[in-house]
Amino acid sequence: MNRRPLTVGIIANPASGRDVRRLTANAGLFSSTDKVSVIQRLLAAFGATGIEQVLMPTDMTGIAAAVQKNSRSRQAREQHWPALEFLDLTLRQSVEDTRQAARWMAERGVSLIAVLGGDGTHKAVAAEVGDIPLLTLSTGTNNAFPELREATSAGLAGGLYANSRVPAEIALRRNKRLLVREPTRGLCEVALVDVAVSPLAFVGARAISRASDLAEVFVTFAEPQSIGISALCGLWLPVTRQEPHGAWMRLDPQSPEALLVPLAPGLLQGCGVLDAGYLQPDVPQPLCLNAGTLALDGEREIEFNPHDRPTVTLDAGGPLSIDVNAVLEHAARQRLLAIDRDHRQHPVNLQSEDTLENKNVDTPDH
């Protein structure tokens, strides 16, 4: 019986890190070239940890094409990149491309999916893959769910888990989520980080970048170093990813108390804080407004009116993700990255390869 190759997926959102906040704030640009570099560092780490195959979708910005071209390079051979297989999607240049790629990878039974994007990209992937773990990499604008880290280290952690060298109880973290429900409309939507209630009547440009457009915020976690809507609670009532509860905050420009918050990179605004507290799990929360819009993970998606009764509920049913720090700490304690003299990356073997290459180089006559 043939053994299936050890396979993981990589999904890079071509549009992440390129949204309107490049114009309204001083956010940096995460280019396609940058994403190609991140993917190649992942491939090197996956190859070093025994991953045999990587699935990737095609795209219209040249990311997949560049990775495929570079997979034939000397560097790729020396680093023993895994074999690559590309899904030729019918591209719509929308979030449906990400969802379709995630479904394809789930059907192929990948051990994990490395996601390059922001909060919205990770939410789209999580909605399609059940309990397949996500290796989260930040390439968006206001990223809170994916942590900012070097792709090589993240790839090592993901590869060690996928190759069953680190047990799931150490490697995986179950994330919290927010459920937005409106029973009369049959609505149930998910946010991984925050839900913001805005008095703006229409979805419009989606992103919220003004404090005056915020009336209430619910968060799964809130870290003081965050940028974006979750930073409101992060700088007032911090909550870690591991704690079972979340937090909420009500805002009013006329409040006597105000907080200076980075709502986007380089965009600092004062927000009037009316009230705040911890958000307990599994307790539906009504909204403070009768009409307006709801922004999920930074993007306005839902309009509601006085006839609707939407609620927000925190629970522990979010996606699984690789706890990179926990995996690498375990790897250090167990010496999982120790290698013997037979390993191709052992210094003795590297010296032998260098000697052979030097012998093959023609030397000029004197």
From TrEMBL:
Enzyme class: transferase
GO terms classed as biological process: NADP+ biosynthetic process
Keywords carried by this UniProt record: Cytoplasm, Transferase
Chain intervals for the UniProt region annotation (Disordered): 344-366
Keyword Transferase: yes
Keyword Transferase listed: yes
Pfam families: NAD_kinase
GO MF terms, alphabetically ordered: ATP binding; NAD binding; NAD+ kinase activity
Record EC number: 2.7.1.-
Biased composition, class Basic and acidic residues, residue ranges: 356-366
UniProt feature coiled coil, ranges: none
Stored InterPro entries: AcoX-like, AcoX_kinase, ATP-NAD_kinase_N, NAD/diacylglycerol_kinase_sf, NADK
Entry protein name: Acetoin catabolism protein
Organism whose genome encodes this protein: Pseudomonas fluorescens (strain ATCC BAA-477 / NRRL B-23932 / Pf-5)
Gene: acoX
